[in-house]
Design a protein that fits this description.
By secondary structure, chain A is an alpha/beta fold. Chain A contains eleven helices and 14 strands. In chain A, helix 3 packs across helix 4, helix 4 runs antiparallel to helix 5 and helix 5 crosses helix 11. Chain A is globular. Chain B is α/β, with parallel strands linked by helices. Chain B is globular. The chains are: A alpha/beta, B alpha/beta. Strand 5 of chain A pairs antiparallel with strand 19 of chain B, so a sheet runs across the interface.
Chain lengths: ~300, ~375
């Protein structure tokens, strides 16, 4: 697949720039399901794209499915509750592990053990992240095997319509918003399986859910420690990059220790920041043509020069 | 912390300064002068006496300035712990006339319903960045809303805040604010709501700003007030606005007597409000009898608090309490904490080195609101 990952578009829209750079002149399917009830408030987006856009309306379709198929709806609700509980437990484990890691880092500072202990702490955090993502995936697989969503009338009907729309589209543009809702709707209709050779444009939360893993982060929250956490596996439409939108609001890039931990924890995936309007193009596993964006390095430095 | 061997004012005083030297001193320093935990207030002018008037519990309300001999420069140095905020005025006594003025050398003012005070900041105090308007934030709206009240026998006005991008198809929590007009005027609460919502630190909220013309009576455990809020205003709002309409989506908020109004209303309707935000509540009580030193307005408060203290009960789910360490109410607030905790309510209690004033209440708002109503900042990336 090829396409572009972008930063927030509200204050500095650059989507049309990359659409043109990738020579897209046909219709673009848009996904604004992350905006939830505001899904249909896409006038600005359509105007920006020159009205060659058709909204797939995945949020409202999802609501219809949950209304029309009570059995599926109940199972879906139970699964979401379980995922939420698992996220809470993972968060508790993560906080305790990180606290221990920080304590050990303080105590071992300057000693012979410092490096090994830091490596070991990172390893444990990475294992927690991986296990959590795999457990979420296993729960979803079990749900799919049990409920067979793509064989249910309520969903089949929409998938057929979506396939028809996508057949007439040269690209798909996925906006950000609430990442759990967005990922949920994209999965509910198996959107990745409906894509053929469309080019992908995804920004903010959209870029996050279309990668290998969805990483939630905010290092300066009003409550709590601000520890990044893995939410789930992503859709795998692009690989090797963890998008971090709105870094000025969400990251402490001047804190080298934090930057280093973040980078080492997510490696080999590269942690790349996307401020307003910034973007990078990709084709397969190759990223190129970055405008803005920064790379969090394991050394603790942040570099604006990166490529793959 | 900076360790200071000789304060700037001491160095000046020892130099037997000329008028020109004093002029230079005034021009070169920011006032009050903060040196480590020592804060020096200065006043230049002819007077018989100059006094510092402040409202810091534990310190005298009035403290005399010293004049540098053969000059018209007066000063007083106080110890002020890091991150403190103190509101004050300067009393200038000339002949038989004593005048309270704001510090002419200090640009920082805090406004309140009685006018304004000068503000001294201890070392390390920083204005929270979220109190300034965020140019990226979408802006909510405020409209007047009239409610017929049988409890009070007449019309009551509310000001209703709706968040930017308000939609009828959503369900919003309701925050009911006592002394609403003052919160809007003296804490800039509308802009704070816009910013915290924009930053996703709190969810979209509907806020009802309520104001009483007789607050000392109506907010002091007055049955009519509790009835108005719970049986008239909230049901009316829940009927006409898309509100969650369950305890976890209802919060009462208030400061001082507004804190009493919030708490006493929740006590009269236990379980109806799932969230309480109580700032510097005037929770006066007595251990023997109902006598108090605070004046007749407190009598119903003391009766109410004594009743509650005799039989503490869980009346809400989550309670955020804050109080300034410089307030006389700190004792009452601190003593209420274990009592509320013992009932099983989830409680967060925060103290600040500040007084009984609107900027103290403003500065605690982010922590309070984001704890009572956590926003979706970890899940939403626009």
């Amino acid at each position: 697949m090829k396409g572009a990952l972008l930063g927030p578009q509200r204050l500095k829209p650059t989507l049309i720039e990359v659409v043109r750079a990738l020579a897209i002149d046909g219709t673009v399917a848009t996904v604004t399901a992350g905006w939830q009830e505001r899904e249909d408030q896409d006038d600005d987006l359509n105007a920006h794209l020159g009205h060659k856009a058709v909204n797939l309306k995945l949020y409202v379709r999802g609501e219809q499915v949950l209304h029309d198929d009570p059995e599926f709806s109940a199972a879906h609700r139970a699964r979401q509750d379980k995922l939420k509980q698992m996220q809470d437990y993972y968060r508790l484990r993560l906080a305790a592990t990180l606290e221990a890691a920080l304590d050990i880092a303080r105590r071992s500072a300057g000693s012979e053990l410092e490096h090994d202990e830091a490596e070991f702490s990172t390893k444990i955090l990475r294992e927690l992240d991986d296990d959590h993502a795999q457990r979420c995936a296993a729960l979803r697989d079990e749900f799919d095997a049990r409920t067979k969503p793509f064989e249910r009338d309520a969903i089949v009907k929409h998938r057929r319509e979506l396939q028809q729309i996508l057949n007439g589209c040269q690209a798909i543009a996925i906006a950000g918003g609430h990442v759990a809702v967005l990922l949920n709707r994209l999965r509910m209709f198996g959107l990745t399986q409906l894509l053929k050779d469309q080019v992908l444009f995804a920004w903010s939360g959209g870029a996050m859910v279309t990668g290998d893993r969805v990483v939630l982060f905010h290092e300066d929250p009003p409550q709590g420690q601000g520890v990044a956490e893995v939410m789930d596996l992503g859709l795998g439409l692009h690989h090797g990059l963890t998008p971090l939108p709105s870094p000025r609001q969400r990251l402490k890039l001047e804190d080298r220790q934090r930057v280093s931990w973040f980078a080492r924890r997510m490696a080999p995936s590269r942690c790349i920041t996307f401020d307003n309007g910034e973007y990078v193009l990709f084709e397969g596993r190759r990223f190129y043509g970055a405008s803005g964006t920064q790379w969090l390095q394991s050394s603790g430095e942040v570099s604006s020069r990166w490529s793959s | 912390m900076v360790v200071v061997s000789e304060l700037a004012i001491q160095a000046l005083a020892h130099s037997k300064p000329s008028a020109a030297a004093i002029e230079l001193f005034i021009r070169r320093n920011k006032f009050p002068i903060v040196e480590g935990n020592q804060v020096t207030f200065c006043f230049r002018g002819d007077a018989e006496h100059v006094n510092l008037k402040s409202w810091v519990y534990g310190l005298p309300n009035s403290q005399a300035f010293t004049r540098i001999p053969e000059t018209n420069l007066w000063y007083i140095t106080l110890q002020l712990p890091a991150k403190s905020r103190v509101e004050y005025k300067i009393e200038v006594v000339r002949g038989t006339r004593a005048e309270w003025i704001m510090d002419p050398l200090n640009q920082y003012l805090a406004r309140d319903p009685f006018g304004a005070n000068s503000v001294a900041h201890g070392e390390g105090y920083q204005y929270p960045d979220w109190i300034r308007p965020d140019p990226e934030a979408r802006v909510g709206t405020i409209e007047d809303w009239a409610i017929d009240s049988q409890a009070f026998g007449g019309k009551r006005m509310l000001q209703i805040y709706r968040p930017a991008r308000f939609r009828k198809s959503r369900q919003y929590p309701l925050l009911f604010v006592h002394d609403g007009r003052d919160y809007l005027a003296f804490t800039g609460m509308k802009g704070i709501l816009d910013t915290l919502i924009h930053r996703l630190e709190i969810p979209d909220l509907v806020v009802a700003f309520s104001t009483s013309s007789d607050r000392l009576k109506e907010y002091a455990d007055d049955e009519r007030h509790a009835k108005f809020v719970t049986e008239e205003a909230v049901p009316h709002l829940e009927k006409h606005l898309p509100l969650i309409g369950r305890p976890r989506g209802r919060c009462l908020m208030g400061a001082s007597f507004g804190g009493v109004a919030s708490f006493s209303t929740a006590c009269r309707y236990p379980g109806f409000y799932g969230r309480l935000l109580l700032q510097s509540g005037s929770f006066a009580f007595s251990d023997i009898g109902h006598q108090n030193q605070r004046g007749p307005a407190f009598e119903p408060v003391i009766k109410f608090m004594n009743r509650y203290r005799a039989a503490p009960a869980q009346v809400s789910e989550r309670v955020f309490m804050s109080c300034g360490m410089h307030e006389s109410l700190i004792y009452e607030n601190r003593s209420l904490v274990p009592m509320l905790q013992s009932t099983g309510m989830e409680l967060k209690y925060v103290e600040a080195r500040d007084g009984h004033n609107w900027e103290n209440w403003r500065d605690r708002m982010r922590e309070a609101l984001s704890w009572l109503f956590p926003g979706p900042l970890l899940m939403v990336y626009e």
